[in-house]
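pasting for ref
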Amino acid sequence: MRARERFGRPAAAVAAGFLCASALAFGIVGARADEAAGPGRKDASEGMLEAQAAARAIDREVGKALEAEGLAPTGPADDAEFLRRVTLDLLGVPPTEEEVRAFLASKEPGKRAARVEELLRNPLYGDHMADLWGRLLFAGLRKYPIPEVENVFRWLAQGMNDGKGMDWLLREVVTATGNTKENPALAYTLRFRDGGIPADIGGATARLFLGVQIQCAQCHDHPYEAWKKGDFAGFAAFFNLVNPRPADPMDRKAGFVVEDPPMRTLARSKNRGGEGADIKGAARADPKFLGGAVYRDREEGSRRQALADWILARDNPWFARAMANRVWSWFFGRGIVNPVDDFRSDTPPSHPALLDTLALGFAESGWDLRFLARAVALSGTYQRTSRLPKGWQGDEAALRRFDRFYARGPVKPLSADQVFDSILRVTGMDDAFRRANRSEIERTRLFLLQQFVTQIDDDESGVAEQWAGTIPQGLLLMNGPLTQAGTRAGAQAGRGDRIGAIARENTLHRILDDTKDAAARVDRLYLTLLGRHPSEREASDAAAFAVRGRSGQGWEDLSWALLNSSEFMSNH
């Protein structure tokens, strides 16, 4: 099969399909096929209208598949289930007790859409997006000094909160030059300095931004797909003279410098292996776009800038689809193409028209990630309850099929970052961090988060975005200093750990101090930790359990049990 036919129809036809489908899906006019970047971001009202149209398209396409499969979807999620799900997905943390109470009490008919907009304006949205993209782009960065990590994630979060699109992020990381002390985007290039440039950075760029695993063709022609060794060498050649060097060989703290070589250096490299070449023939290979033309070096612009232009061109068949698919997987726990970064002929999309529709809308929005977030969160598909139908009799295979066609709301484990930040929020420890000395506390926060990432997300490739429980992870969550301090009835300083010194007053302490009625205390704990009121039986059993013992021990045990429950540790 030829490379341009990898998705069942030629790449040019896929791109043309994006443009032609726009009138049907969104009522907007497609841009020129040779446009190198998406149009400017839309204003809020126009963006909302287009996201609502995309949400209807999601429900239409998912509904067609469910009908064809003979599957009846579950009903809508109640307000508590929706609020916790969408808050975790957009902010990375659960809603507060006050937010849950206000949302449940509201009778406004459009409160769900309004809440989505509020969440997208919350600064924590940028922090969460920085965690998600940072874990992919900057895998292994947490091994570096904490100030450097802070700078990279702060830069990324600020860009996301400023509404910058994926075109900004792609150009920043793929074309970055300068000193690492001044340009945080260079963390992407520095990620590969201990390995092979251009091979590693070329393979990662194709996987992360195009959803294509061309690294399989590094040493031999791909056994099942159309990619040949020449395809990989040509793509890697866009990076073949990227060679980070110390800014000051005598001062390790001076950072690294990355520059694009001048034309005369490129000319010489064609006659001998270029610096950093680590794959046979890569240095002498001409840069070549995947499934496309050879790039000829020019006096103006760099190879990496040309690659970024090509990725963002409107006739590129991979970028928009890969980005839409990845964002979809963050909301639903699986991609329309699964695995999310492996578009192949034997991994076809479960809902092809839906993927094309989302990709088109994403491109027309100016590569705006908020467009995809709105479209998904406003859809009835996303807002279904995750509870299985009453009397469910299906086996595990039936459940996988039920979930594959999105017949119920998504159920997925929290990421390491979500676990850590959620524990901070529900225990009130985030308030302690904000009140204390910020620089020292931020270092403590990152130190503990590194422990969570090491124990919970230890995939060095950055591919794994979720985790499955192990004994060390369980012990960290059950007995770690953060959990212990957060569930004390009265956190005291001087307990021998840094967190104990910070958390002089946590959520449990405040609830016990402010609320004397046992039933009301139970209700507040459930709202805080699980985002819902307890059932009548839960309320009765929890109150009876908590009032036993002395000095608040029963309340500590109840808080600890809820914090370590599967309901808290998952988004559902």
